[in-house]
Amino acid sequence: MKILAFAGSSRSNSLNQKLLDIAAMAAIEAGAQVTSIHLRDYPLPFYCGDVEAQLGLPERAASLQALLAENDALLIASPDYNGGYSAILKNALDWMSRPSGDGKPGLAHFANKAVAVVSASPGPLGGSRGQLAIRGVLDKLGMLVIPQSFSLGNAHEAFDERHKLKDAKVENMVRAVGVALADTVRKLKG
To answer: How many CA atoms lie within 13 A of 4 on its CB side?
Structure first.
């Protein structure tokens, strides 16, 4: 069971990255192999059909496609940017969905793979609006969005200095998402 994990935030000390790390650790403890990446390490131009026609698929987009193809599932932490998801997250998904150099349709890399979404925000809704929006995109890409998710409100107050959640009950809910994703992948793989 291989899971690719990333946050839709490029900010250092990201609340979403902290939340993602907790869910990813739970998936590892449930038997999954998790590869965590940072989207800031995969700089891409904003998707434009003209750029793609002139230059082809950017090398970093091809790298992301390869990572997606190698994994059985995605674990995404999606921040809420003004009621939506981040541009870096959408742009990465847009480029990953393009046809690859081997002629394989880009959407084929996403099809029937499980995905779980968590979110964190300083606001009281915990990024739930952005999470809802990105879930629609993932569904459109043909992914199996699992029902287990988590939104952490007032996230700027939720972590201690070691990036651990202060509330054990909240931590258990976040961890449950990682476990549920690993269990879903296990069932899909038979």
So the answer is: 20
Nearest of 92, 23, 107, 95 to residue 55 by alpha carbon:
95
Q: Are 185 and 1 in contact (CB under 8 A)?
A: yes
Render pLDDT for 85-99 as a digit per residue (tens, 0 to 9). 999 999 999 999 998
Q: What predicted TM-score, i.e. pTM, was given to this entire model?
A: 0.94
Which residue range is the domain that position 31 belongs to? 2-189
pLDDT, tens digit, for every residue of 47-69? Answer: 999 999 999 999 999 999 999 99
Q: Stretch 23-34: mean pLDDT, rounded?
A: 98
Distance CA 58, CA 44 (A): 7
188: its two tokens: 């899909």
Q: What total of structural domains would you count in the chain?
A: 1
In this structure, what CATH number is given to the domain that contains residue 63?
3.40.50.360
Residue 51 C-beta-side C-alpha neighbours within 13 Å: 10
Reply yes or no on whether the pLDDT at 82 is more than 90.
no
d(CA 178, CA 20): 9
